[in-house]
Structure prediction request, 270 residues.
Amino acid sequence: MTEASLATPLRRARGLGPCARRRPEQRSAPPPKAPERTLGRAAAIAAFLAALLAIDTQVTLGGQLILGALTWIALFVAARPLSAHRRAQVAVVICAATVAEVTGSILWGVYTYRLHNLPTFIPPAHGLVFMAGLALSEALRRRAALLVGAAALAAVTWGVLGLAVLPRMDAAGALGVPLLLLFLWRSRARAAYAGVFLVVGALELYGTAIGTWRWAAALPGLGIPDGNPPSGVASGYVWFDVMALLLAPRLLALAARMSAGRPAAAADPA
Prediction:
């Protein structure tokens, strides 16, 4: 027997032969998404939302309906690469945010959209905002502490400015800042909350500046001075995110049980 023929079984025994390379357990896990890709995703969503809000200032109700259809399409396209778990979270955020929009804007009047309605693009836009914040936190995963620190510093600075410097007293907004800081400090999803806060804060400043919506000078019925936008507005998004993180696994489990029960139900005699 030649030396080469003796080496082949030895290589295979040591895991060096061609058969060993085909073993599934030795395949490495898929590499995580590149930070540049996720950061580009966040930037693309933010650019779409900025353009959407700017166009809305120039259209009537009919134009808003078209913008709503386009935003739903953009949402479905952006959500396609996501896992089922993430898509469930997006769905929960949209539902929770829509309830909050109807309550805060239409019923309570804390803020008002330009046409005094709830634009059809707002519910899907909430889903896009959530995805942009998640993408930002994923892009900065290795700098999560820096991201959370930046969000906390921005929230505190904004709250202090609203109480002492800005033209409009922002007592109502300042009440939401401690809640946001609590989640940034204690939650395991603090990086996601920080990313969403930064996206929401930028869009709120932009949207109020161009007149897409405006916040009341004081909370109706309470008289508490409020900013335009209030510094603590992103704390509301914390609740949307918390609900998404808590309810999405339950929704997926419910859907799995319902799907698993269909064949058995179909096999039962009528």
Q: What stands out?
A: Residues 234-267 form the longest helix (34 residues). The chain has one domain: 37-256. Residues 110 and 216 are 6 Å apart (CA to CA). The radius of gyration is 25 Å.
